[in-house]
Amino acid sequence: MTTSGTSGEAAFRRALRRAAPGLARPLPWIGHEDPWAILVSEVMLQQTSTSRVVAPWTAFMERFPSPRACADASLADVLRAWAGLGYPRRARALHEAARAICHRHAGAVPRRGDELRRLPGVGPYTAAAVASFAFGDREAVLDTNVGRVLARAVANAPLGASNARALAQRLLPRRDVSSFNQAMIDLGATFCRAAPRCDACPVARVCRWRAEGGGDPAPRSAGVSRPQRPFAGSDRQIRGRVLRELGQAPRSAAALAVSFGDVEESRLDAVVDGLVVDGLIQRSANGLALAGA
Fold first, then answer.
1. Of the CATH numbers 1.10.10.10, 3.30.830.10, 3.30.70.20, 3.10.450.50, which one belongs to the domain with range 235-290?
2. Residues recognised as catalytic
3. What does the DSSP 8-state code read for residue 121?
4. What pTM value is reported for the model?
5. Residue ranges per structural domain of the chain
6. What are 173-221's pLDDT values in tens digits?
7. Three-state DSSP class for 291?
8. pLDDT above 60 (res 49)
C-alpha cells in the first residue's frame, strides 16, 4: 500500500495513534506534572541514550527537586550529581538555567517558547519538548528518532531541516499532542531504529519506505545524528575521569598526573585546560578543584 500527500499523512497519524499504547515505555518523566522534571530529563537526554538517563534523573530530582534547589546549590554539587552522564557542560547550563528561572520567572519554568529558548542550554528542540510535554502546547518534537520515522514512514525521502520541521508540525493531531509526540519518539526508539525492525513495526502497513522501496532515506535526513566517535580512549572519557577525581577532593596537578599515569602528560594538560575554559574546574594556589567547590 503506497501512501502519499495528505491522505498518507492522515493514514500514518491514525495508525500511530492506534499503536501508541503498545509503544509506551515506562520512563519516569513521561506524564510527569512538574515542568522542572521535564526540563531536567530533556537536558539529560541530549546526546545520551535513554537507558543511561533513568537512574541519574531519579537521583538528580531527589537532590534538586526544584529550580530553586538547583540554583541554590554550588556548581560543584551539580557536577557531582551529573557524574557518569557525560557532556558536563550540560550540567553547568542546567545550573545556569535554574538560576535564570529563579531570577526572571519567580522559580517557575516558563511556558512561552521564546522564554524557554532564552534559558541557557535550551535550544529549539528542548524548548519544543518542554512546551509539548510539560504544557501540552501544539509543538512538534523533532529528534533523531522522529527524524528517522518522518524520512522513512511518511516521506520515503531525505528531509532537510526546514522540511522535516514542517512535516512534523503538520502531522500533529488536534488533541493530545504530547502523547502523539511521545509515540513518534517511542516508534523511532523501538522499531524505526538505525537498524530498523520493519517486520515487527506496528505501522508497517502505512510506511512509504516499506511500500515503495529504495535506499534508506533516514541517514541523510535532518534530525538524524551522525554516529559519534568511540567513547573509550576519547578526550570525553578523560574529561569525565578528571571530573570524577576532583569530585572526590581537590588535587594538585602533580597528584592528578599520578592518577592518570596511562594518559600522556601533554594530553592530560590539554584536557584540564579545556575544562578550565569551559568553567567546569578551577585552578588555585592549592591545585585543581571543581568549579564552585
1. 1.10.10.10
2. 42
3. T
4. 0.89
5. 1-228, 235-290
6. 999 999 999 999 999 999 999 999 999 999 999 999 999 999 999 997 8
7. coil
8. yes
